[in-house]
Amino acid sequence: MKNNMKKETLTDALKVIGRIVRDTRPIMPSLIFAAVVSLVSIILSMLAPELIGILTDGIYDYVTDGVVMDADRQLRVAVLLIASYLVSDILSVVTMIIMNNTVSRHFTCRIRIDMSAKISKIPIKKVDTTPNGEIISRMTNDVSIMGGSVHDIFNIIINGVLKLIVITVLIFIANPIMAAVILVFVPASIFLSAKLAARSEKFFAQSREAAGKIYSATEEDLTGFDTVKVYNLEKHKQNGYEQLSEDYRKKSERGYLTSGIVQPIVAVVNNLAYIAICVVGSILVINGTLRVGDLMAFILYTQLFSGPLESISGGMSMMQSTIASARRVYDFLDSEEMEEPKADEVNQECIGKVTFDHVAFSYEEDKPLIRDLNLEVLPGQKIAIVGPTGGGKTTIVNLLMRFYDPTSGHILVDGRCIQEMNRSDVREMFSMVLQDTVLFSGTVYDNIAYGNPSATSEEVMEAARRAHIDFWIDGLPEGFNTVINEESTNISGGQKQLLTIARAYLSNRPILILDEATSNVDTRTELIIQETMDELMKGRTAFVIAHRLSTVENSDLILVINNGDVVEKGTHKDLLSLGGLYSEIYNSQYSIAK
After folding, report:
1. What would the pLDDT profile of 139-149 be if each residue is shown by its tens digit?
2. C-alpha angle with apex 348: 342 to 351, nearest 5 degrees?
3. Which residues contact 191 (CB under 8 A, 6 or more apart)?
């Protein structure tokens, strides 16, 4: 059983590495060029032991046997030795520059672009159930580690395996006996490296998950910065952050400790090989079967041999960290995408007739929310959706916008089922203003223009005027060019809401969704906005979610939603006379107001 699990783990790891290699195809020409440069560097570095051996023999013969030293020859060899070292080092630097530029500018950049594109394709449910910090962690930390994997694979193949092959060939040509002594220690070194590296992978996987939790906690703390301050939660949050950091430290420590043992063990094995070469080589020199210069060359080859082995072992240990990160990145890239029907482009103009035909929906299979919703909304009608919190009001909006699809039944716009339309075409029919305002880093002008990026400056300014924020914008130091900072802290909550309302004006679409659109403005501003919205809703189908029933009294139809069902529907007057839930909510609000 254990052996089968190990085989599955190894197979899975090889698949991940294979996919990383496939993903390097766009940068393969640069990698091949870097490999050629690196190979030339390796060959030049391999000349050094042989040249040092020649220099050593010349000096040894002169000192021991009195043989006349060929000074010119020694000088030429010395110059060639220096040149080989110098050119080899320069080519190594060139290889490093090529690798860094290629990997950073293309490989990791492209993966992040792919992940960014993926976000627009995954279901809303995936985004709702995945902490933002977790996604950020995968796009930043894990992708950076994957970038390092290309270096690791390159080092294993070029500076490890290839260099090992070149050295092995050279030493066997020089002296098979000495070569056999060196190669006796290679299997032990590689076996230990592979064994320890495999053990570290699970610890790196755990540490990547712990890092994702830290990103999520940081993002949450920054988003809720004011709340943390108001409730004096700094110490509580700090304690929580320390616990997450400690958990990350322990898991990372175990991974790096296990992988960090690899290179010292390889170094010990290499040192044993070094001692063996010295002992066997000395015996062969004494017996006259090996020259001193050849022994010196073999000692240097032994030292060079340790480099590739350490590259292989180090690369194998770091690859475990890479595999853990790559799994998380590929898990996100391979996650389920929203299905889009093969629908024809919508050419007919939307008039705004909306029908709910036996619609049922649940966020969780065993907890039905909307059971059997039937509703027909005529073009130009204003439909108010009211009811207790959690009753399913916002869910109806989510279904209209195709953030979620019904589990059964159909929603039709102008007689066409929206489940059979592309989501982008569906959303082109709607303008929406939410209770939770969303602004982006940029100018006031930019934030309004998101409603219609192709709008002219006159249209943007007209939208601001209709939203009654033109006077406020004119009072800003830079007017429409005033920059809203990342957290939107340089404008008030009411001003944020007004900007999103202006954005909806600019989009000018036939169906409106207003989810507590005036909740963040004062009473006087609310009256002004309500009046202009009434004008905006003329000739358009409007769905208005409201808690304050005074804002929806003039609706053509009011739906009272409770536990996902339409428990009452009618006009304001009809529902009051009915004496049901609507009447109860309205009278309670009226009593509070008095």
Report:
1. 877 887 777 66
2. 120
3. none
Question: What is the tens place of the pLDDT at every residue in 76-102?
Answer: 888 888 888 898 889 888 887 887 777
**Chain centre to alpha carbon of residue 402:** 25
Q: Is the pLDDT of residue 411 over 90?
A: yes
SS3 572: helix
Whether the CB-CB separation of 133 and 219 falls below 8 Å is answered with yes
Q: Which residues contact 17 (CB under 8 A, 6 or more apart)?
A: 153, 319, 323
- Residue pair 98/37 in contact (Cβ under 8 Å)? The answer is yes
User: Would you say 544 and 488 are in contact if contact means Cβ atoms under 8 Å apart?
Assistant: no
Which amino acid, one-letter code, is at 83?
A
Distance separating alpha carbons of residues 404 and 338, to the nearest angstrom? 10
pLDDT tens string 474-528: 888 888 888 886 566 667 777 777 888 888 888 888 898 888 766 656 677 677 6
| CA dist., res. 90 & res. 28, Å (int) | 22
What pLDDT score does 104 carry? 62
Angle formed at CA 563 by CA 558 and CA 565, multiple of 5 degrees: 50
In angstroms, rounded to a whole number, what is the distance separating the alpha carbons of residues 525 and 490? 20
The H or E element that residue 229 is part of is: helix 225-230
Distance, CA of 478 to CA of 473 (rounded, Å): 8
Strand ranges of the sheet holding 557-562, from the earlier edge strand across to the other edge: 430-433, 511-515, 541-545, 382-386, 557-562, 565-570
**What tens digit of pLDDT does each residue of 249-273 get?**
887 777 777 666 766 777 777 777 7
| Distance separating alpha carbons of residues 535 and 163, to the nearest angstrom | 78
Are 452 and 506 a contacting pair, CB within 8 Å?
yes
Q: How many CB atoms lie within 10 A of CB 49?
A: 25
Exposed, middle or buried by CB within 10 Å (0-12, 13-18, 19+), for 130? Answer: middle
Residue 555's CB: how many other CB atoms inside 10 A? 22
Kindly tell me the number of DSSP H helices and DSSP E strands found in the chain: 23, 12
Q: Helices 186-223 & 262-286, crossing angle to 10 degrees?
A: 160
Query: Measured on CA atoms in the order 259, 34, 50, 187, is the torsion positive or negative?
Result: positive
DSSP, res 52? H
Cα separation values, 33 from 107, 157, 482, Å:
16, 14, 49
